[in-house]
From TrEMBL:
Region Disordered: start-end pairs: 48-67, 253-305
Protein name as catalogued: S-adenosyl-L-methionine-dependent tRNA 4-demethylwyosine synthase TYW1
GO biological process, one term: wybutosine biosynthetic process
Organism: Pycnonotus jocosus
Gene3D superfamilies xrefs: 3.40.50.360, Aldolase class I (3.20.20.70)
Domain Flavodoxin-like: residue ranges: 84-242
InterPro entries assigned to the protein according to its UniProt record, in alphabetical order: Aldolase_TIM, Flavdoxin-like, Flavodoxin/NO_synth, Flavoprotein-like_sf, rSAM, rSAM_sf, tRNA_wybutosine-synth, tRNA_wybutosine-synthase
Pathway: tRNA modification; wybutosine-tRNA(Phe) biosynthesis
Enzyme class: lyase
Length: 732
């Protein structure tokens, strides 16, 4: 018995010891697993390299024998290089001079060549065509003051950056475009040396364009220049480029071996090695994903503002960061960047600090908008840019008559109380159920918002296609869409902020997620108040909006009731997610009867790219015809409403209450001048002089009506049809 008691005591002691030291055991197991994965990964890579280095040399010789000599192939052979386009961005004329010199050298190879000033070129229209032109595109671009591009290249670089980081632009947008970059800079300016060339190279790569050779950098600082002067640097690069060009003319299809970082090739640097890689099928994206996508130049490592990732664009980055992962002891992190789980770890640390220290709402990792103070932001809408160029306005232009190029998209609160599955910010903004952050004054927020918005507009001066008259108009903000991100109504001084906007003659379009009913009741008149109605039942709302409040459904219903008490224009915004909420027509009709909105916007969900924050795919995006059918069915259940307008480009329709149909004509547009008069009277009277939505309506033009041949596109503008098929067409 004593022996058995001793055994049990010993066994119990062991169990207790194991439990007390469980962290070390877990760590050891995790370390073992990581070590095993690293060994497996290394072994696999070694095998692949060994197989490539012992490939059949006769096959390479046979390929070489088939290639002709020179750059002008015989008639019977395929044309591998149709010509060369040399783009330059120059401030002092050096890049332009280099471009002309290179053009003369290329002409001597009997190849067509064109020299293009970036300031005279529309990258949105032109670069896509180069994906199938078989041209080689060369970019000679200088870095100017404070790491900025020359004035002539400013729009080209801005467009390229936005395209590379915009989830609406397919990541294969420039697939097929072959390019080389030569940057011009001065290493005496350490923090900004060749910034523009490096970034342009990365943006092109992110859009799936293929390098034909490693990026090169010329240095005006003769003491540091590799060849003694920037002219000598260029001549050395030009010789390599011409050699490479001749090889491509003979039929070599693959770009350089990849593994290019900061202008230096990590491979042996020999052409034979590159050719070997290409013949064995090594692709650019396989060899450079980890090294190149997240490379940072010196100014980015120092915290330059331009290197900050947009909140809404992190979804794109997350997708790329799923590759090349290795398991470490404390979590999953990428070789050259933080993985999705890593971002969330940092995010939750920020949230903890915010909660404990009452600090800033904005975590520095996510500060990608034009940020204002500690909790606000402003961003340029793509429809603003579209209307500046005469390519049409957003659905608000069609439905309500706003001037899209004069609209400022902003928010006084980046925080939100929901984590919707279709959120195009991929839940990178703060979340919370109450205000717990340091608060900025509304005067400061408005002043900085207008200044930052105007600065973004000014960047379009001289951009190809931008209409001068509209650019001038755009500097005077006329509308404010308080729907950028987060929950604007959470801001404790939202009424003061709205009043300031009205005092500046700016109309207000405020969106709320229907979780703050008391704040809706206390809200003073705005031009138009939106409530997002993303689902019609408690369970579907839980699945789609994923609200933080435990009593979210009651709050939702109370918010709709509060909306019904408003006298100014009110809107339900329905976002249709196929297989999630499109079969709840009767329930939607009941909710509409509860809130009695003036208008109902019905829009198909926009796919925002793959994200671990959401399980949505393109299969959940309804076709425009399906949205039309849904609205027609809903209209049959709501005899007091009719289908008024349509904006096909946004996959969106507008239903309006019959009181807005006067003498057979829809009056969904807004008389903005009249609204400003009414709101001034309201404020002067201390709120006793109220007014209703019917007092500031305007006639809806025929082209905006449902069933019109224009399908909601303003005939005063010219619709831009993209020629390339390789892109994501999910619009906003």
């Amino acid at each position: 018995l004593d022996v058995s008691m001793d055994m049990w005591s010993y066994f119990h002691t062991c169990l207790v010891s194991i439990w007390l030291h469980r962290f070390y055991i877990y760590s050891a197991v995790a370390f073992g697993i990581s070590l095993w994965i690293v060994i497996q990964f290394t072994t696999t890579r070694t095998k692949r390299k060994s197989e490539k280095s012992h490939g059949n040399p006769s096959s390479l010789e046979g390929t070489a024998d088939k290639l002709g000599n020179g750059c002008t192939p015989p008639q019977a052979q395929e044309v591998h290089v149709a010509g060369v386009k040399i783009f330059y961005g120059s401030q002092t004329g050096t890049a332009k001079r280099f471009a002309k010199t290179l053009a003369e050298a290329v002409s001597s190879l009997n190849l067509p060549v064109e020299v293009i000033n970036m300031g005279d070129y529309d990258p949105e229209d032109g670069l896509a065509e180069e994906t199938s032109s078989r041209n080689i595109c060369v970019f000679l671009v200088a870095t100017y003051t404070e790491g900025q591009p020359p004035e002539s290249a400013a729009w080209f670089c801005k467009w390229l950056e936005e395209a590379a980081n915009d989830f609406r632009v397919g990541k294969s947008f420039l697939q097929g475009l072959r390019y080389a970059v030569f940057g011009l800079g001065n290493s005496a300016y350490v923090d900004h040396y060749n910034t523009v060339g490096r970034r342009m190279d990365r943006w092109l790569w992110m859009l799936s364009a293929s390098r034909i050779m490693t990026r090169a950098e010329g240095d005006c600082n003769v003491t540091q220049s590799k060849h003694g002067s920037i002219e000598a640097d260029f001549e050395a690069w030009k010789t390599k480029f011409l050699t490479r060009l001749q090889v491509l003319c003979k039929g070599e299809k693959k770009p350089c071996s990849g593994k290019c970082k900061k202008g230096k090739c990590k491979s042996s640097g020999k052409q034979s090695k590159e050719s070997s890689d290409h013949e064995h099928g090594t692709s650019e994206h396989e060899t450079t994903e980890a090294e190149e996508l997240f490379e940072t130049s010196s100014e980015e490592e120092a915290g330059g503002t331009d290197s900050v990732v947009d909140v809404e664009d992190l979804g794109n980055i997350m997708g790329h960061m799923k590759k090349a992962k290795v398991l470490l002891l404390e979590g999953v992190w990428n070789v050259h960047g933080v993985s999705h789980s890593g971002y969330h770890l940092v995010y939750f640390v920020c949230q903890f600090l915010q909660a404990k220290l009452n600090c800033l709402m904005i975590c520095p990792l996510f500060s990608g908008y034009k940020l204002i103070g500690s909790h606000s932001g402003v961003k340029l809408c793509r429809w603003t840019k579209s209307m500046l160029r005469g390519r049409g306005g957003c659905y608000k232009h069609t439905f309500y008559g706003i001037e899209s190029h004069r609209c400022m998209e902003a928010t006084p609160s980046l925080a939100c109380a929901n984590k919707c599955v279709f959120c195009w910010r991929h839940h990178t903004n703060p979340v919370g159920t109450e205000w717990r952050w340091k608060m900025d004054q509304p005067e400061v927020i408005l002043q900085e918002a207008i200044e930052k918005h105007q600065n973004m507009i000014k960047q379009f001066k001289g951009v190809s296609g931008v209409k001068a008259a509209r650019l001038e108009e755009a500097l005077a903000v006329k509308h404010c869409a308080l729907s950028l991100v987060g929950e604007p109504i959470m801001y404790p001084q939202i009424n003061h902020f709205v009043r300031l906007l009205h005092q500046h003659g700016i109309s207000t379009f405020l969106v709320t997620n229907a979780q703050f009913p008391e704040e809706i009741r206390r809200l003073e008149p705005v031009t138009q108040l939106y409530v997002s109605v993303d689902a019609s039942t408690k369970e579907s709302l839980r699945r789609i909006d994923r609200p933080l409040f435990k009593d979210f459904w009651q709050r939702f219903l109370d918010s709709l009731k509060a909306l019904a008490e408003k006298q100014q224009r009110t809107v339900y915004r329905l976002t249709l997610v196929k297989a999630w909420n499109v079969d709840e027509l009767k329930a939607y009709a009941d909710l509409i009867s509860l809130g009695k909105p003036d208008f109902i916007e019905v829009k198909g969900v926009t796919y925002c790219g793959e994200s671990s924050a959401s399980s949505l795919t393109m299969a959940n995006v309804p076709w425009h015809g399906e949205v039309v059918s849904f609205v027609q069915e809903l209209a049959r259940l709501l005899p007091e409403y009719g289908i008024a307008c349509e904006h096909e480009h946004s996959n969106c329709l507008l239903m309006a209450h019959s009181k807005f149909q006067v003498d057979g004509e829809w009056r969904t547009w807004i008389d903005y001048g009249r609204f400003q008069e009414l709101v001034r009277e309201y404020e002067r009277s201390g709120g006793s002089r109220t007014f209703t939505a019917a007092e500031y309506t305007a006639r809806t033009p025929p082209w905006a009506l449902f069933g019109a041949k224009e399908r909601g596109f303003d005939p005063l503008d010219v619709r831009f049809q993209r020629k390339s098929k390789a892109r994501d067409i999910s619009g906003c």
